[in-house]
Amino acid sequence: MSNLNVTMSRRLVLAAATAAPVLLSATSNSTAQEAAQSLPSWNDGPAKQAILDFVRTIVSQVPPEDRIATFDQDGTLWVEHPVYTQAMFALERVHTLASQHPEWKDHEPFKAVLANDEAAIAKFSERDWAEVVFATHAGISQADFQDIVRQWLGTAKHPRFKRPYTELVYQPMREVMDYLRANGFKTYIVTGGGQDFVRTYAQRVYGVPPEQVVGSSIATTYEIKNGKPELMRLPKLFFDDDHAGKAIGIDLFIGKRPYAAFGNSTGDREMLEWTGAGEGARLKMLVHHDDAEREYAYGPAGGLPDTKVGTFDQSLLDEANAKGWVVISMKNDWKRVFGS
Amino acid sequence: MSNLNVTMSRRLVLAAATAAPVLLSATSNSTAQEAAQSLPSWNDGPAKQAILDFVRTIVSQVPPEDRIATFDQDGTLWVEHPVYTQAMFALERVHTLASQHPEWKDHEPFKAVLANDEAAIAKFSERDWAEVVFATHAGISQADFQDIVRQWLGTAKHPRFKRPYTELVYQPMREVMDYLRANGFKTYIVTGGGQDFVRTYAQRVYGVPPEQVVGSSIATTYEIKNGKPELMRLPKLFFDDDHAGKAIGIDLFIGKRPYAAFGNSTGDREMLEWTGAGEGARLKMLVHHDDAEREYAYGPAGGLPDTKVGTFDQSLLDEANAKGWVVISMKNDWKRVFGS
Q1: CB A268, CB A250: distance < 8 Å
Q2: What is the ipTM of this complex?
């Protein structure tokens, strides 16, 4: 699957630390030097400076309970190429389940998956992906699904970097999360990916507890099995937390407008618009993947290769420039990409 | 509207403090005496004792991040008779909006509402209530809706007690919330009522921030109006947070199983079942309204008058007895019902 650049809609790839209370004055004594030391993996430059300036302003103006920061996940906090991690999980799970579904070997889209036909998979329609996702994500309980995800993440490795996916987290972004939390922010993940998928590792990997992970979800139903209630996963989309869904999801789950929002693709546009429409200082940042050597380079904004996975198109760059959103150059702003 | 006992489905009446982190050991030095002083509005007895015993056990066994407590609202935290507060809001808002809808005076169910025809309103079908709710809760932005709710709550008074609804909160339950939070619990409201309605006052009245209010909701859509994004409320149910929906909502919004759950009606059954299915000590409590003098008496469990608003039926009482859920007698367990 090494160079698979899958055409997929986030809509269907569902799958895809509690903040310490800090008094308004708690960080007012922190010096600029201390602040700068909080982001050791960032090069000096406008992106790092925007974060430092923003935090300095907020801690003096906004009470801690309103300090909300939202982060997209795929492509913003961890690697999303060549294909979303959760899509990789779904494809691999088709192989795992194939013995229980002998009909799959003659039935698309499963036939293509089982044959590792990358060209065919790259052309999957939304409907094809829906079939793959529902076949691999539904029909079991929430608890069983999350156990399966945890097991898979414990062994699966990224095709290029040969490391577990949960190690392919952007160290500079982890530092931003830590820095915001140290300044009284509550950090949320707001992902087009599957809420239940991300919740299995968000606490361990990002320091974000389950209740601060907002994502796409499939419907569940409450059933009594052997006298015990279970929440069973249905093959049906419940909430699509992407594009406008991110603003809707933030309102639905948090009920407060963020002061800071971080994304990397057109799916994050409305989250940044919604954040920026608030009064006072608001930080809106977009990670631009312009570093083919250390990670990947794609856009098509900035003349980089086009992609269907995490598209950052020219209209998003135009809006960012017009509205003062800060574009993070992975190549220039980050001293290093991954943790050790 | 004083004795209106409205037939309504919670499904359609959508409308209807951050916990301080406490170390595992933080409360282990608290004495039984100190604990008892935390619930001054409770009479000594099995209900109060169950709360004290439970908290003593949990603080020694469960890390703070897992200490989740969920509270139904109507009938558990505040008065729900003669009719849910949010239904009262909807009915009164029909009057307010009538001048913009001249057709309503000849069109049911609005005609009955405008005529204050309590007998007719009491017989409203689910469809009637849906019309009333959507006409009064949709078609405006989230921000405008919440402003309207805040204004209404500032002036509306309960027909019997002649006090603002937000003062008709059960003081003993406020003490339970405070006591749990002082012991590291995160307290959530999980209501069949409208999430956006309850979020307007939950912080002020219960010390529960918006992100810890889970409720029924209607769909919203993201629209750019005069260059600014707005979330507009649609006349369409999005999530029904009642009965099985409460277990589903808890998993969806919190992603952790509660250690304690408090309810008062059949709509809370699945929340208590879901809570009780967890391992270790779990507290499940039901408020029984058996106090016609200080508040109301209804069941029909316990031979009390039947009701369609907050029904506590015999099957719920049987299940409570079979599973060791604690039934709170408002009459016997509470020294006082309301705060001063």
Answers
A1: no
A2: 0.91
